[in-house]
UniProtKB/TrEMBL annotation:
CDD domains hit by this protein: AdoMet_MTases
Annotated residues for binding of S-adenosyl-L-methionine: 133, 179
Name recorded for this polypeptide: tRNA (adenine(58)-N(1))-methyltransferase catalytic subunit TRM61
Coiled-coil parts of chain: none
GO biological process: tRNA methylation
Domain tRNA (adenine(58)-N(1))-methyltransferase catalytic subunit TRM61 C-terminal: 62-283
Sample GO molecular function, one term: tRNA (adenine(58)-N1)-methyltransferase activity
Length: 398
C-alpha cells in the first residue's frame, strides 16, 4: 500500500495536512498547482522532498505538511462518498473479529473504503479481503483508489447486491463484516462463506436499535452464538497548561505571613482610630464648655464604640477598607501566586513554572453505530482446526 520510499515522487498519493480540520489526499502531478486558503503551492515543488516535510507556500504566508498515507490518515482525509467507519470502531471490530495477518475477510458494502484500507493493512499480503458494493459508481471509484494504492492483490472488489445475490466465495473466510442497511438479509449468505473447520466471526454495524434487534434475531435463527452488542464512544481529552502547584509547606508559610501582616495592620488601625477619637472628644468637650453652644443633643463619647452612628460607620468602613487593602496587599505581595480551581478546591499556584494537565471533556462524542458481534462454532462432526483452541478469544462480557 502506498509508497515506501523516503521521498515523494511524481504520481504518489500524499496526505496534505493544513490544519486538524483541513486534511486532504493529493496525487502529486507536476504541472498542477494546489490552491487553498493556506497558500499556493506547485506540485512540482513536492517532488523529491522527504515525506513528513513542512512546505512553505509560494508567497511564504502559509504552510502545510506532506504526509505518507496510513489507513488512519486515509480515514481522516478520504473523499466521502458515503458514511464511513472511523478508527475507534475500526480498531474494535478488527480486534473482536480477530482480523490478523493471513486472515480471509468479507466486507459489504465497500462504501468509501475507509474500513477496507485498515483491513487490507491488518491482513497483509498473505490474507485476502473480498469487498462488495452494489452502487456501481461507488464500486468503480473504490476500485480506482485500490488500484492506485497498490491494494489489488489483497482486495477483490465486486459490484453486487449481496442481500439478493449472496457472496462470490463459499466456506473459506474467517470473518464477515456487514455495513448494510439490512444486514439480516445477508446473514444466511454470510454463513455460507464462513469456513466450518474452525470458529469464525461476524459483525454487523447498524445505527439504530431496531436494526440491531432484527440482526440479533437473524443471527440466532442462523445458529450463531455469543451474540453481543457494543457501542464505541470517544471521550476527547483537552490538554492545557496550568501553573505549577506550590508545596503545602510554602502555601502554609505564605498564609501565616499574610495573617501576621493583617493582624499588625488591624492593631495599627485601632491605634489610629483611638488617636482620632481622643481628638474628637477634646473638641466635643471644648464645645460643651462653650457657653455660646447650647445644643443639648451633643454627647460625650469616650470610646470608639460610643461614637455617633455616622462617625462609627465612617470609622468602621475605614477599618474594613484597611482590611480589604490588606487583602489586596496579600495578593500583591504574593504576586507569584494565583488560584487554580482543581477538583472543587481552590489552591494557590505559581505562575513561574507550568505543568500540562488533561481534562476529559464532559461531552462524549456521538454514537455512530451499534456493533453486533456473533460467533459461528463448527459442528461437532467437523474436526477442530489445530490452531483453534489457541486462537479462541475470551467470550464478550458486554
Ligand atoms: C455506509 S456505507 C459503507 C461504508 C464503509 N464501511 C466505509 O467505511 O467506508 C454502506 C454501503 O453499502 C452499500 N450497500 C447497501 N446495500 C448493499 C447491498 N445489498 N449489497 C452491496 N452493497 C450495499 C451502499 O451502496 C453503501 O455504499
Amino acid at each position: 500500500m502506498w509508497s515506501s520510499s523516503p521521498k515523494i515522487a511524481a504520481g504518489d498519493t500524499v496526505v496534505v495536512w493544513m490544519t486538524r480540520d483541513s486534511i486532504q489526499p493529493l496525487v502529486v502531478a507536476p504541472g498542477k498547482d494546489l490552491n487553498s486558503k493556506y497558500g499556493n503551492y506547485r506540485h512540482a515543488d513536492f517532488v523529491g522532498v522527504p515525506y513528513g516535510s513542512k512546505i512553505a507556500s509560494r508567497t511564504g504566508q502559509g504552510f502545510l505538511y506532506l504526509l505518507r498515507p496510513t489507513p488512519e490518515l486515509w480515514t481522516l482525509a478520504l473523499p466521502h462518498r458515503t458514511q464511513i467507519l472511523y478508527i475507534a470502531d475500526i480498531a474494535f471490530i478488527t480486534s473482536r473479529l480477530n482480523i490478523k495477518p493471513g486472515a480471509r475477510v468479507i466486507e459489504a458494502g465497500t462504501g468509501s473504503g475507509s474500513f477496507t484500507h485498515s483491513v487490507a493493512r491488518s491482513i497483509g499480503d498473505s490474507g485476502h479481503l473480498w469487498s462488495y458494493e452494489f452502487h456501481e459508481a461507488r464500486a468503480n471509484k473504490a476500485r480506482e483508489e485500490f488500484l492506485r494504492h497498490g491494494m489489488t492483490d489483497t482486495v477483490t472488489l465486486t459490484h453486487r447486491n449481496v442481500c439478493r445475490d449472496g457472496f462470490t466465495v463459499d466456506n473459506i473466510v474467517d470473518a464477515v463484516f456487514l455495513d448494510l442497511p439490512a444486514p439480516w438479509d445477508a446473514i444466511d449468505h454470510a454463513k455460507k462463506t464462513l469456513r466450518k473447520d474452525r470458529i469464525t466471526r461476524i459483525c454487523c454495524f447498524s445505527p439504530c436499535m431496531e436494526q440491531v434487534l432484527r440482526t440479533v434475531s437473524a443471527l440466532n435463527d442462523a445458529g450463531f452464538t455469543e451474540i453481543t452488542m457494543y457501542e464505541t464512544l470517544l471521550r476527547p481529552h483537552e490538554v492545557s497548561q496550568i501553573p505549577q502547584l506550590q508545596s503545602i509547606g510554602h502555601v502554609s508559610q505564605k498564609l501565616k505571613e499574610a495573617e501576621k501582616r493583617r493582624e499588625e495592620k488591624r492593631l495599627r488601625q485601632i491605634a489610629n482610630n483611638k488617636a482620632r477619637l481622643n481628638t474628637t472628644t477634646t473638641l466635643t468637650k471644648r464645645k460643651r464648655d462653650d457657653p455660646l453652644d447650647n445644643n443639648d443633643n451633643d454627647n460625650d463619647y469616650s470610646t470608639e464604640h460610643d461614637l455617633p452612628p455616622s462617625e462609627a460607620k465612617r470609622v468602621k468602613s475605614s477599618e474594613t477598607e484597611a482590611v480589604d487593602k490588606d487583602e489586596m496587599m496579600i495578593k500583591v505581595d504574593d504576586d507569584d501566586t494565583t488560584t487554580h480551581n482543581r477538583g472543587g478546591s481552590t489552591l494557590p499556584v505559581s505562575k513561574q513554572s507550568r505543568i500540562s494537565v488533561s481534562n476529559a471533556l464532559p461531552d462524549v462524542r456521538g454514537h455512530t453505530s451499534y456493533l453486533t458481534f456473533a460467533v459461528l462454532v463448527p459442528l461437532l462432526s467437523t474436526p477442530p482446526h489445530e490452531d483453534e483452541m489457541a486462537e479462541q478469544q475470551p467470550s464478550g462480557s458486554g
